[in-house]
Recover the amino acids of this structure.
């Protein structure tokens, strides 16, 4: 039986002894907390040197994967140096932790389908959780780091992975040598401002990445207003932490530390078990070894739903616009102008508003499908009426729609819909879809399928047609507006099912082109 001893700087009230089986071998695992006593850790290391196969060290702060990495606590450095003098392998679980952080983000994105796409992510400590942040950044540009606020009391967020790397490679160390945090925390106004911007950042975020070390220090003052409905990514989420997040209304907890035993154990234990099972030294264990074990054993990250109900919320934006001057009068200022100024003034207002940048009109919530998946989004309005859109070249409208798409991406939307006249102007959304950074839909596919489904259901109920297996329906069908985006799709699909399809449209040339296209396609 392999013996794993986990010695932790953490509290002794989490101590345990268990026997288990892993990778086809029997294990005895014992955890001993020292309540922060580094001297006791040294004693235990030497005491268990001849009685264990591998020793795990927990509570030792991992060095950052970015930056100069010279700020590791002297205590932790000394303990690591002493552990190298032992005859048996000693591990902190750092290798497993780094692999798990990268793997968990990719796994969740693939299995949960677009989980992080354009999500607004707040990383409370980029120095600690750089690995997971780097992977998530591949799916969204909306990543913020709160390191300056927490580490130095500076009311400033880092808004890109590149800037976070620059911060870690010099700025962080320079600020650590200055009294910036002492000064800022001693000033009540700055201290309150830091709390305010942190609350606002958490409220806007979809995903919050919380380090294992200092978990409660980061979140102790948070309420459901900040954490309600959020996705929390952390590691080794013990039950007390799950309960803490549940009380604050968190929807989803993604734990990068998998639970492969009956009880939750830290990464030093998991890595120690793998080292013992593979009969390797800690410096011989490679990322490939860890990934192979993860794959072969079917080890997956924990995705927890504190409320007990699976909850998934997708995000969208939908573009609308005023249909006429009457819609513009819903604004009180415009309504006043319409009452006291001559009619020509409203024409001028209509032209001016057409040049206005897009803005959020309202937020939409409470959409839920029969499968339980939810959606929320924002209505974004552009100022142009159909009259103004037609009086300008299509590029005029494209520009505002692309601005709306960029806004949608920043807000965390995964798709943008074009409504009313914005979906027919120019090439019906094709150019916008090509140039935008997020998917664009006009709803035409849904309209076409809905129209055909409704027609099919109607004729079945009325008994108007007779269907023979493998044969076309001996009936005639007509599509009015055949060359439009929806009509042309209907024509093509109906031609597959009916013997005769009558296509009606005022655009003769397009009609003939559509006919030739369908005949060739058939």
């Amino acid at each position: 039986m392999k013996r794993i001893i986990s010695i932790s700087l953490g509290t002794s009230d989490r101590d345990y002894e268990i026997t288990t089986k892993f990778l086809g071998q029997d294990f005895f695992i014992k955890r001993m907390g020292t309540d922060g006593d580094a001297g006791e850790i040294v004693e235990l290391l030497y005491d268990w040197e001849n009685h264990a196969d591998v020793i795990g060290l927990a509570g030792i702060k991992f060095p950052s994967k970015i930056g100069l990495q010279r700020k590791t606590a002297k205590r932790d450095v000394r303990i690591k140096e002493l552990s190298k003098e032992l005859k048996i392998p000693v591990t902190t679980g750092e290798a497993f932790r780094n692999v798990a952080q990268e793997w968990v983000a990719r796994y969740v994105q693939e299995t949960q389908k677009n989980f992080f796409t354009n999500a607004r992510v707040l990383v409370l400590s980029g120095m600690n959780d750089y690995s997971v942040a780097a992977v998530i950044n591949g799916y969204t540009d909306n990543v913020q780091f709160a390191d300056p606020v927490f580490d130095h009391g500076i009311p400033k967020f880092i808004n890109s992975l590149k800037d976070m790397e620059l911060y870690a490679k010099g700025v962080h160390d320079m600020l650590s040598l200055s009294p910036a945090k002492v000064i800022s925390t001693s000033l009540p106004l700055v201290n309150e401002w830091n709390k305010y911007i942190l609350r606002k950042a958490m409220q806007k975020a979809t995903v919050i990445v919380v380090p294992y070390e200092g978990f409660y220090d980061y979140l102790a003052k948070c309420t459901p207003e900040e954490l309600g409905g959020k996705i929390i990514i952390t590691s080794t989420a013990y039950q007390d932490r799950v309960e803490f997040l549940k009380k604050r209304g968190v929807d989803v907890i993604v734990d990068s530390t998998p639970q492969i035993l009956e009880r939750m154990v830290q990464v030093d234990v998991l890595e120690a078990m793998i080292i013992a099972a593979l009969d390797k030294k800690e410096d011989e264990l490679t990322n490939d070894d860890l990934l192979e074990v993860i794959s072969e054993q079917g080890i997956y990250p924990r995705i927890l739903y504190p409320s007990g109900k699976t909850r998934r919320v997708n995000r969208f934006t939908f573009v609308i616009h005023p249909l006429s001057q009457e819609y513009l009068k819903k604004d009180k200022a415009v309504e006043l102008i319409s009452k006291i100024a001559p009619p020509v003034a409203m024409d001028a207002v209509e032209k001016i508003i057409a040049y206005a940048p897009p803005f959020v009109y309202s937020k939409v919530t409470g959409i839920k499908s029969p499968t339980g998946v939810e959606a929320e989004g924002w209505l974004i309005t552009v100022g142009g009426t159909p009259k103004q859109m037609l009086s300008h070249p299509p590029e005029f409208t494209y520009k505002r729609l692309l601005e709306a798409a960029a806004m949608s991406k920043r807000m965390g939307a995964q798709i943008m819909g074009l409504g009313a006249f914005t979906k027919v102007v120019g090439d019906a959304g094709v150019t916008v879809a090509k140039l935008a950074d997020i998917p664009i839909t006009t709803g035409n596919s849904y309209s076409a399928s809905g129209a055909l489904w409704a027609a099919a259901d109607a004729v079945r109920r009325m008994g108007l047609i007779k269907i023979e297996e493998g044969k076309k329906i001996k009936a005639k069908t007509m599509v009015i507006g055949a060359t439009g985006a929806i009509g042309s799709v209907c024509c093509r699909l109906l031609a597959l099912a009916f013997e005769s399809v009558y296509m009606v449209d005022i655009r003769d040339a397009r009609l003939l082109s559509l006919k030739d296209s369908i005949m060739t396609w058939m």
User: Anything to note?
Assistant: The first helix runs from residue 38 to 47. The two ends are 70 Å apart (CA to CA).
